[in-house]
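input
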Amino acid sequence: MPNAVFLGTGHFVPDCVVTNEELAELMDTSDEWIQQRTGIQQRRFVDFDKEPMGASDLGTRAARNALDAAGMSTDHVDCIIYATLSPDKAFPGDGVLVQAKLDIPAGVPAFDIRNQCSGFLYGLQMANAFIRQGVYNNVLLIGSEVHSSGLEFADRGREVSVIFGDGGAAAVLGASDDNERGVLGVTLHADGRFAEVLETSCPSSALNPRVTKEMLDTGAQYPRMQGKLVFKNAVQRMPEAVSKVLAEHDVEPKDIKLLIPHQANLRISEMVQRRLGLRDDQVFNNIQKYGNTTAASIPLALDEAVKEGRLQKGDLLVLTAFGAGFTWGAALVRW
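output
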């Protein structure tokens, strides 16, 4: 069986930087309040007045950068996996929109997955399985989000709205006979009993009509979160998933070169680090600059880590995420 190896990574974020102080002008919050609870200092938002873009546009630019880093053309791509919770349209999915914008040949399949913050890991499991079984040779895996147009910038929504940012990131995974590299394992989990703890409930096909003025008046079109419960589960489930995938491959935490956790909250990442007994130099965080970019957060951080020289061939990399659903997981990669 071939191994699935990372051939290239790339990301793209909008130019518009939004600071905590700017958000404090819109709602009852402050730079100190936001940093104390989340570690976030700023985030990127699409500027719809200057250059309107959807998630597929950010994903397309990120994918181009990943392909360039891999030294590949779009003709080499034989599968697209696209993860987002903020698609351009109700349908079709963003995967085919990216396919058209990149001019990837007709006939190449495009999978759209909705696993929110765990989307990149769920997509990585799919890509790894496809490549190892010889179904596809070169998979373009994308996570991309535009949150800014779907947040409530008012006191009622402040605990959620200060967290998120816009961004896209991508990786190219390919088949290799190099036994010293590749995705060693991925463990994925879900518990739908917590589905309503973190959700956007409107519009809904379970309702007729799917959206009403009354729903909009209550803010049902905006994300809602029970923050303490999400935090409690995240700091438990991510270390569990990491420990599981490490144990399956006889790896100790001290052997990890780099852990890249989903960038949901710096306090969560710090707790995960402590529970795994990792040093500061073993963990990569960039939520301070970008906020939570959901499906894009892991590949965005991965691309920055690569560009900063934090990973060399043969290093052990661990990725982990937790998010709405609840869904969570971890992956072990030999870089």
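quick obs: The CA atoms of residues 30 and 157 lie 14 Å apart.
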